[in-house]
Write a sequence for this structure.
């Protein structure tokens, strides 16, 4: 195909590839004791992750997610980058679930993710949680991300005004997040056109304590990216900074031969880096690490580094290892449970050293100290491949413990059996109640009931079997009380006998030697006994004078 021609007949110069210039800062704030935020910025990838505060693994979640994505920082994707970013975030989510399975103390940990991946002149965007992405383009400053919070849902439904969101008591309640809760969380995904000169701001929700108009002014007017990032963090600290705060500033520029130093850090040769941590390299106040080993002059941006493409294994020959002199002694086979962490950290540092970048927050601390989250039951090579390239997915499945597999079906089976027993027990109990009878009151009459006189919640465990013509007010007061309290019967015929006794004698039944139910006066010699009328007591039980004795009616329950 012929090259495009200008109006004068001269060919137009080819478009230069786009890259990111960047700066990143993170601070623990003035209230929190640890930094749960993590961020990475490079020539083609930028990501901010905010670990869920209050959980023991907030820093683990954000650091693991960010370190799991750093190998994406290149611009060559043979199969296209449309789904690469989303797939990597979902893989990072699976890794969090597996970390919780290995260490139950991390249960409940989670993290937000807001990421940009630059490929050619297209920008791929992925987002979940309440970290934010802002864009300044052609003089327009706008928020690109949408918060996945409870108050944002209320705003979308018209039940809350935006100005009320900042003071709402549930403003920090997240509706979507990475973690061990959802195996496939829903992400906001988009593919955007990109132009040279546009700026992006990625930040955790700690920056929300600075007014939006102030944030916009700083991004517009501060030309130097590093100075802009520092100023935003300082404004957050000046406002109290009750949460961690992390900001990443990006500017899209055309790649030229003189912009190797696109990183906001100094580029030094690998041999100049000290193996031990320099004083002040990792500030506990900011949680920021300045990488000391980068090799932009020896690495192209056309693909992942060799360290990422081929993880170091304990059995690999020394000559094939990058940075290892010939004849150097090899480490023994991984038998120390902590050896996998050290080798994973070594591979990770080589990956970070392969390109200009900036890493801040909990991820920087993890990379600097070597405390990379380790999955038990994996070999070093499989762990490295999973974290950096995710080429060992099938091996991960093969390495799952047999006990864990059994639990997957054992727990539902036990629950199903228990449910069957509970249902069977309830049914047998109800069937037994329907073999019982009792006599009680219904509609001011004596009635025979089938069942028992109790109820189970809203369900009555009895029903009227037969209503008699015996009115309750025709019975003696004491007998009325007995019937209202119900008289149990052995079966239906027994209940019918109780009704017959009530109809003929006014009682539920009498023992063989029980006196009659009327008061009989007993007079002492030389005195005349006169029955005393009933007193107006609540029970209206018969009483007598001191010279007479009343015999109460005997009521016998079967």
């Amino acid at each position: 195909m012929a090259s495009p021609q200008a109006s004068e007949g001269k060919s137009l110069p080819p478009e230069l590839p786009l890259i990111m210039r960047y700066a990143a800062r993170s601070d623990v704030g003035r209230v929190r004791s640890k930094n749960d935020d993590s961020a990475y910025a490079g020539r083609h990838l930028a990501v901010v992750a905010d670990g869920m505060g209050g959980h023991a693994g907030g820093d683990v979640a954000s650091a693991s997610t960010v370190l799991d994505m750093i190998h994406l920082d290149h611009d060559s994707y043979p199969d296209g980058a449309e789904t690469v970013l989303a797939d990597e975030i979902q893989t990072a989510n699976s890794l969090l679930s597996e970390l919780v399975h290995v260490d139950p103390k991390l249960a409940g940990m989670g993290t937000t993710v807001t990421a940009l991946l630059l490929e050619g002149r297209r920008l791929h965007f992925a987002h979940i949680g309440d970290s934010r992405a802002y864009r300044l383009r052609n003089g327009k400053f706008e928020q690109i991300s949408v918060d996945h919070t409870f108050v944002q849902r209320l705003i979308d439904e018209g039940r809350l005004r935006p100005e009320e969101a900042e003071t709402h008591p549930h403003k920090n309640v997240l509706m979507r997040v990475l973690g061990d809760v959802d195996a496939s969380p829903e992400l906001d995904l988009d593919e955007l056109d990109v132009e040279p000169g546009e700026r992006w701001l990625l930040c955790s929700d700690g920056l929300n304590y600075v007014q939006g108009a102030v944030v916009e002014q700083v991004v517009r007017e501060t030309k130097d990216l590093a100075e802009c990032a520092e100023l935003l963090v300082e404004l957050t600290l000046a406002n109290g900074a009750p949460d961690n705060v992390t900001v990443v500033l990006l500017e899209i520029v055309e790649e030229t031969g003189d912009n190797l130093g696109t990183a906001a850090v100094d580029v030094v040769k690998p041999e100049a880096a000290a193996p031990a941590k320099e004083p002040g390299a990792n500030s506990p106040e900011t949680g920021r690490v300045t990488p000391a080993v980068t090799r932009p002059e020896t690495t192209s941006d056309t693909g992942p580094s060799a360290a990422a493409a081929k993880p170091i294994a304990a059995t690999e020959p020394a000559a094939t290892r990058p940075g290892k002199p010939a004849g150097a002694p090899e480490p023994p086979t991984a038998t120390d449970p902590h050896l996998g962490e050290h080798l994973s950290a070594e591979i990770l540092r080589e990956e970070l050293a392969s390109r200009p970048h900036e890493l801040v927050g909990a991820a920087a601390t993890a990379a600097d100290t070597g405390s990379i989250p380790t999955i038990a039951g994996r070999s070093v090579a499989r762990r490295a491949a999973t974290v950096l390239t995710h080429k060992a997915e099938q091996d991960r499945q093969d390495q799952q413990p047999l006990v864990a597999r059994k639990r997957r079906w054992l727990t539902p089976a036990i629950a199903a059996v228990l449910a069957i027993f509970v249902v069977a027990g309830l049914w047998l109990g109800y069937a037994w109640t329907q073999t019982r009878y009792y006599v009680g009151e219904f509609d001011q009459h004596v009635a025979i009931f089938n069942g028992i006189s109790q109820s189970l919640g809203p369900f009555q465990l009895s029903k009227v079997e037969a209503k008699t013509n015996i009115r309750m007010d025709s019975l003696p007061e004491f007998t009325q009380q007995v019937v209202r309290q119900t008289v149990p019967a052995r079966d239906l015929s027994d209940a019918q006998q109780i009704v017959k006794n009530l109809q003929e004698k006014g009682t539920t039944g009498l023992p063989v030697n029980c006196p009659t139910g009327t008061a009989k006066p007993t007079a002492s010699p030389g005195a005349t006994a006169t029955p005393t009328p009933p007193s107006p007591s609540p029970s209206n039980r018969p009483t007598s004078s001191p010279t007479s004795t009343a015999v109460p009616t005997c009521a016998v329950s079967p």
